[in-house]
Amino acid sequence: MHLKVALVSVGLLGIFLNPLCDASCYAQSLKGYSRSKDTHAIEDFPTPTELVEKQAQRQLEESPDLPEKARREAVGPGQVISTPTEKRETASESTYVGKDDPTVDASVDKAQVKGRPTIALALGGGGARGAAHVGVLRVLKEANIPIDYIVGNSMGSIVGGLYAAGVPLDDIEKMLLDNSLKKSYIPGFIIPTTLIFNPIKKLLNPFKKHYAGIFTGNKFGRFLEEKLPEGVENVEDTPIPFSAVATNLIDGKAYRISDGKLSTAIRASSTIPSVLQPVAIGDKVYVDGGVRANMPASAARDTGADIVIAVLVDEPLKELPPKKFRKLSAIVSRLGDVMLGVSDARQMPFADIIINPDVSGIPVVKGKPADAERAIKAGEEATKIALPIIRKSLKK
Is 194 exposed, middle or buried (0-12, 13-18, 19+ CB in 10 A)? Predict the structure, then answer.
């Protein structure tokens, strides 16, 4: 049963986006504000990964179960949605991405940009397919296309967060090609022993509470911390303003994390449920943002940028032969593709330009270095097609 849950989780969070370059618009003009200067001293976080685990432990111990009466009152006796306003408000909830900390200003600082529109980049989740983001960023950089804000989810959060922090694209590409990133995320060869010893650990530590997951995610957190440049520990420190999108299990909503430890924010955004343990930040318990906003275009629009460029690395929904579904893994994967495809379609109206690298056939989890190379090249090719449209938008 636990294995089935893990497979479903991997399938549902493992979609991650595809096709050619297209332009779609519905753009809202939002006010831009100054970026928050409130940063935390590194001395306050001597061991960031360990701190996250302690925070989760304390949160579990101090949070009693919600009484049955309170649960009934929260749910309510039922409702009828009938008016256009009610329908519109209910539909908008599917694309809403809130702020992790409402007191933190996470908007594009338009006062520092003169004579051109501002650009926010929305990088979607996609597992191994997300390597295409490296190609997208490389072409944009070579073409001198300015990026004023990056919002990332899952693999888009990993690539986008590291790039925003100042990690060279060649170094990010190397992490993908030598499998060091993948090995830090899922040390696959120890999965069987983990499943065996997790119950034993519970017996040895009966009073210790922790969130469910095959791996703690500590190794992944340390890997991210080691790769960040000196002087960049918090989200607020990144040379390019950045936010990571994650899903809060407590209320089921998506949030844009724009402050605190950068490695923790990236880890929260890319935590696949059941594979890695959820990440506790404040009063929230986070997992992969793909559950609610796989391609976070609405969150990018909320930065107040004039132009939102979204990168979609999804597998296109083509017809498959019936015999394909004789395996459970194929059914789980297909369900994930369908559900995330619908979610991404809802995000498209928030983007002005959508870049869709052709990553067809690239597996989400079991990608090889050759798949990463192909995805990076696909990202470069699709972005080159998009350049005339981007340049035209900048001239308006």
Answer: middle
Q: How far apart are CA 42 and CA 61, in angstroms?
A: 27
Residue 263 token pair: 């490695």
pTM above 0.90, yes or no: no
Q: Which residues contact 363 (CB under 8 A, 6 or more apart)?
A: 127, 128, 371
What is the rounded distance in angstroms from the CA atom of residue 244 to the CA atom of residue 312?
A: 16
Residues with catalytic annotation? Answer: 154, 288
328: Cβ–Cβ under 8 A, 6 or more apart, which residues? 4, 7
pLDDT in tens, the chain (396 residues): 443 434 344 444 443 333 333 333 333 333 343 444 333 333 333 455 666 666 666 666 666 655 544 444 444 456 787 787 777 777 777 788 989 998 898 899 887 777 889 999 999 998 889 999 999 999 999 999 999 999 999 999 999 999 999 999 999 999 999 989 988 887 654 444 444 445 555 555 555 557 777 777 888 989 999 999 999 999 999 999 999 999 999 999 999 999 999 999 999 999 988 788 899 999 999 999 887 889 999 999 999 999 999 999 987 777 888 888 888 878 877 887 787 778 788 899 999 999 999 998 887 777 788 999 999 999 999 999 999 999 999 987
Q: Identity (one letter) of the amino acid at 331?
A: I
